[in-house]
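Translate sequence into structure tokens.
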Amino acid sequence: MATKVMVVDDSMMMRKMIKDIISSHPDIELVGDAPNGEVALEKAKEMKPDVVLLDIEMPVMDGIEFLKHYKLIGSGKVVVLSSVAQAGSSSAMEARQLGAVDIIPKPSGGISLDLEQKKGHEIIKAIFKAAGM
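Result follows.
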């Protein structure tokens, strides 16, 4: 059975890049995407993803607020994929405290065109680790 993943990022270009990375793996099923935490919460209720790939900086509801609400309604694991959540940063530490199981920094800022080359394998690995595989 494939691991169900939802992608949450405000950048349409980043969502597409991330979806392309995970869709290339036969054991991962992309169940949805969202441009902010508010939309993601609604979609997560019906899609029940095993893993959520979550950006931190987003309009309407950011990743930190999403984490605060998601732990009340969702059972999936969250992997943060963000330019602001660098190792040891306050955003990364807060995300961990709120239940994020892994933090992957985007390699080149908010729009990381080199994401697949630099972090593609790490993203796939984090999804399977989060899903307990």
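Note: The chain has a mean pLDDT of 90.
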